[in-house]
Structures are given as structure tokens and as C-alpha cells.
Amino acid sequence: MATREGPIKSTRTPIWIGLGGAGAALLATVINPLLGSEANEQVQIFFSETAKYIAFATTFFVVFWVLLDKPLKKRKLSRKPWPKPSQVFREALFSTCTQVIFIAVDIWTAFLVPASEKNSYSDIATHGWAYYAMILFFVFVIHDAYFYWMHRIMHHPKLYDRVHKVHHESTDPTPYSAFHFHPLEALGEAGAAVAMLPLFLLLPWHVSIPVVWGLGQLALNVIGHLGYEVYPSWWLKVPVLKWKNTAMHHYMHHQMVRGNYGLYFRWWDKICGTEFKNLETKYDALFKDAKVAEVPAGQPAGQA
User: Fold this and answer.
1) Greater confidence, 166 or 293?
2) Mind listing the pLDDT tens digit for each residue in 40-80?
3) Is 1 inside any structural domain?
4) 132 in any annotated domain
5) Which of 2, 30, 101, 191 could make an SS bond with 25 (beta carbons 3.0 to 4.6 A apart)?
6) Which Pfam families does this chain map to (predicted)?
7) Residues 6+ apart with CB under 8 A from 178
């Protein structure tokens, strides 16, 4: 699949595009006559879930970029001492718009496919904790696979130029970069909820699974764009743990664009040859107080 060699130097995507996409998603949901009396409840969900995201990202930003900036200096991935206010504003605005689109898709999915709720249960003891953990793991595996291939598609030159470049305007990401998407990409990302339907239609699932998945993907996305490495130095040396992506993994993607497409796990990048060859070298260098940003990022083992 053809991709760009690096970030595209061009004008910033107009802010009104993000606002327009979010506004359309909001209107398409709250004025839907089929929802009837539930419309007011949906408006409350939009505001509460969006506020949750803003609070979550802001907490990470304040803790890492302000309070712990000096103590965690050796773990800092970004080349910039402090992001420009204009960057933070754009990222926060687009990410907030993305959350609105996510919520709209979730509401519509639940509304149009109520059968998925027939397999839900509320008592953990019904199937036990081992089963709960297995279903939750399946959810993250499915989401990771969906994201990897959608992400690869977004790196096609025509889609990159018109849509995905919005996310790559942040070459040095912050916690607000996590959902800094063009509305069309946000809609595609939200399609992960639809990808989960076969699982929820076929297997019993605890009512908390969607909530835990939502919080988990929020936390892991923010950590992936944090600008600091929060995982320990030995992480990539442990056979099982090394398959879980670190902040360095996605930071290299923002820097070099053409590799490290995975969201939660490394296996799709490994299988498809799209992981940067010197990921582990750069990871080790970070903990040896090397100038990480100045280490050549290398090329993926194979080409996309």
C-alpha cells in the first residue's frame, strides 16, 4: 500500500471542519424523532462523556507536562520543551469533536441493534472472572485489528492528504493528540463499535465490558500520545509484555509516519513488516539518557 515518506508540509486543517462534523453528529442524534423522550438523555450523555475526556486528558497533561516534567526528564520523548498553545488548542478542539462523533455512533449502534443487549448479564458470578477477562481481551484484540487495517488505509496518499494528515499535524504529540482526527476519520474510528457487534451478538458479555473498554482505550490512547514513556525499562525484554505497545512505539509513528501502525499490540506490525527496525534500540537508549529524538528512526522491516 502506497504511503508518504514523512509528514506533509501544508496549511493546517480549518477548525470549522471539526466543529461541523461534531455538530452534524450531535444534531443527527438529538433531533432523531425515533428516540422520542430519550433525546434529552442523549444530550446529557454527550456533555458528560465529552467532559470526561477533557478532564482525563487535562489531568495527564498537568501531571506529566507540568508537575513531573523535571523528575521525568529522562523519560520525555518530545523534542520540544513545551507545546505551543495553538497546538494544544487545536488538538483539544478536534479531540472533543471526535468524542461527540464517537458518542453518536455508540448511541445509534445500540439503538439500531438492540439484540446485542440480549446476551448481556450483570452478575459476574454468572460466568466468573476468567470468562470476563477473556471477553475483555477479545474486545481489545478485535479493536486492535480493526484499528491497524483502518490506519493502514488512512495512510494511502489520497486519504492521508485529505483526512489523516489532521492527526499527523502533531509531530510531537501531547495527551490532547489522542483523538485529534478529521471528522471522517473519527467516523471510521467509531466503526470499531460496529466491529464488536458479532462478539456481543454471539457470546454472553457483562454489562460493564463496554464501559471498561471505553475507559481502557481512552487511557491507552492518551498514554500513547503522552510524550513520556511510562513503561519500565525492562518492558520489551519480557516475552509476554513486549507484545504490548509502549508510548515510544506510537511516538515513532508520529515522527516518521511510515510504520508502527498498531494501537495496543505489536503483532500486526510484526506480521506485516511495518514495525520500525530499531524500536527496541531507541527504547533502550531512552533509559540510558540518550538524546532519543536525535536517534535515526530507521525504516520498517517491510514496506506498507
Assistant:
1) 166
2) 566 666 677 778 888 888 999 999 988 998 888 889 987 67
3) no
4) yes
5) 101
6) FA_hydroxylase
7) 57, 95, 218, 221, 222, 224, 225
Q: For residue 190, give its domain range.
A: 15-294
**Position 87: which residue type?**
Q
- The two beta strands, 205-206 and 120-121, are parallel
| Number of residues in the chain | 304
Please report the pLDDT score of residue 83 as a whole number.
Answer: 80
CA angle 106, 163, 44 (to 5 degrees): 25
In whole angstroms, give the CA distance from residue 303 to residue 275.
Answer: 9
Statement: residue 249 has pLDDT above 90: yes
Name the nearest CA neighbour of 95 among 56, 126, 129, 64. Answer: 56
Report the percent of the chain where pLDDT is more than 90.
Answer: 41
* Pairwise pLDDT comparison (254 vs 113), residue with the higher score: 254
Instruction: From 95, 203, 88, select the one nearest 139 (Cα to Cα).
Output: 203
Its pTM stands at 0.83
304 in a structural domain: no
Cell 534500540 found at: 281
Cell triple for 279: 524500536
More confident residue, 52 or 298: 52
Answer whether residue 271 is part of any domain: yes
Q: Of all helices (H) and strands (E), which one includes residue 213?
A: helix 209-224
- Number of domains into which the chain is organized: 1
Which stretch of DSSP H or E encloses residue 120?
Answer: strand 120-121
Q: Which residues contact 197 (CB under 8 A, 6 or more apart)?
A: 109, 113, 116
DSSP H or E segment with residue 112: helix 85-112
Tell me the helices (H) and strands (E) count for the chain, helix number first. Answer: 13, 2
